[in-house]
């Protein structure tokens, strides 16, 4: 008798067998895809390696390179570091020229920085003092070709220094502009209000302006009632060229006046202690500072405190610095003698 359900040799595959075949096919598919992915990455890495080697060959000009990719990467990284080092060296040299480091270069970029000067002299003047300026021009301040010769042969530039009127553009400003068109011997501080009580700010702006526009060993402030022996000034300054940060003048220390009725009244007298005496500072008639100190003023001009008098203010700026104070007798203008730099009019 034949079994109605048929022979076992013709039985259909079970469900578990079918699922196993599906799993096998899926694994095969994933394996194939993984193989293709790995092959692609290897191909990409090989392409990158070839590119790196070709880049190294191009940079070194050595043709075929036998070094490893790791060495190639190290060389490229070293070259990037070398570029950074060159940039830092450039910044260091710039710092030297600006007075932050000694032995700064004599050549700088800028309109007036082609040649290292000995000194830039600023004669502080005011409105209504043209008579004083004309007397100085006749006595010791050269003009025209003689001024150019002084700059080229002795490295000294001289300019009158003045600010602007409180009523900008009024007759006082126009008179100075007209005078300057004729003489070309002014530094006009357009951002400074010209007033007797603003002399300290004027000194700060002058030094900042001068060091920004001329590369000199020294910057000198002079009043417009002082007569200068240019040769003696040059010799006195040259004798201090071996000092990097130097403050030169007729040094003094006097009483701090605390009463408003007194001529030299100091509104902030209480800052100078119970003794009410000023610290050592150069007389305001004439004093000189070296390039690093002028550049210090340029950088810090917005935070440097000013007092009632420009000579006291200048002295205060250098108290906390490593500065050589030079009490130069030739800068004392009370009397004229052989070798003196100055004399009061």
What does this entry look like structurally?
With 345 residues, the chain is of the alpha/beta class. The protein has a domain at 117-249 and 284-344: Spore Coat Polysaccharide Biosynthesis Protein SpsA, Chain A (Alpha-Beta Complex). It has helices spanning 15-60, 69-97, 130-139, 144-154, 171-183, 199-213, 230-238, 291-300, 310-317, and strands at 117-124, 156-164, 186-193, 216-223, 226-228, 246-252, 281-290, 324-327, 342-344. The chain has a seven-stranded mixed β-sheet, sandwiched between helices. The chain has a two-stranded antiparallel ribbon with strand order 5-9. Strand 2, helix 5 (171-183) and strand 3 form a beta-alpha-beta unit. The radius of gyration is 39 Å and the shape is elongated. Belongs to the glycosyltransferase 31 family.
Itemize the secondary structure elements and their pairings.
Layout: H1 15-60, H2 69-97, E1 117-124, H3 130-139, H4 144-154, E2 156-164, H5 171-183, E3 186-193, H6 199-213, E4 216-223, E5 226-228, H7 230-238, E6 246-252, E7 281-290, H8 291-300, H9 310-317, E8 324-327, E9 342-344
Parallel strand pairs: 1-2, 1-4, 2-3, 6-8
Antiparallel strand pairs: 4-7, 5-9, 6-7
């Amino acid at each position: 008798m034949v079994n109605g359900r048929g022979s076992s040799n013709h039985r259909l595959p079970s469900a578990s067998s079918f699922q196993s075949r599906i799993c096998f096919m899926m694994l095969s598919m994933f394996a194939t895809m993984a193989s293709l992915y790995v092959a692609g990455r290897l191909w990409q890495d090989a392409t990158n390696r070839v590119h790196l080697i070709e880049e190294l060959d191009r940079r070194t000009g050595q043709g075929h390179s036998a070094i490893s990719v790791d060495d190639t990467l190290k060389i490229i990284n070293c070259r990037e570091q070398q570029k950074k080092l060159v940039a830092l060296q450039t910044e260091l040299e710039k710092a030297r020229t600006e007075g932050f480091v000694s032995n700064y270069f004599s050549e700088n970029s800028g309109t007036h920085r082609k040649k290292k000067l000995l000194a830039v002299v600023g004669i502080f003047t005011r409105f209504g003092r043209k008579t004083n300026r004309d007397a100085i021009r006749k006595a010791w301040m050269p003009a025209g070709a003689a001024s150019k010769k002084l700059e080229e042969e002795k490295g000294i530039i001289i300019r009158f220094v003045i600010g602007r009127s409180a009523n900008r553009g009024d007759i006082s400003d126009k008179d100075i502009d007209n005078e300057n068109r004729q003489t070309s011997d002014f530094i006009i501080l357009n951002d400074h209000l010209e007033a007797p009580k603003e002399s300290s700010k004027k000194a700060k702006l002058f030094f900042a302006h001068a060091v920004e526009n001329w590369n000199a060993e020294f910057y000198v402030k002079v009043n417009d009632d002082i007569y200068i022996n240019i040769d003696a000034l040059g010799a006195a300054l040259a004798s201090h060229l071996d000092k990097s940060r130097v403050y030169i003048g007729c040094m003094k220390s006097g009483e701090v006046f605390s009463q408003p009725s007194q001529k030299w009244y100091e509104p902030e007298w209480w800052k100078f202690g119970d003794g009410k005496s000023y610290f050592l500072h150069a007389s305001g008639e004439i004093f000189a500072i070296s390039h690093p100190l002028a550049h210090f003023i340029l950088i810090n001009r917005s935070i440097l405190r000013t007092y009632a008098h420009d000579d006291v203010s200048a002295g205060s700026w250098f108290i906390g610095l490593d500065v050589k104070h030079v009490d130069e007798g030739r800068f004392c203008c009370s009397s004229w003698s052989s070798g003196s730099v100055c004399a009061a009019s």
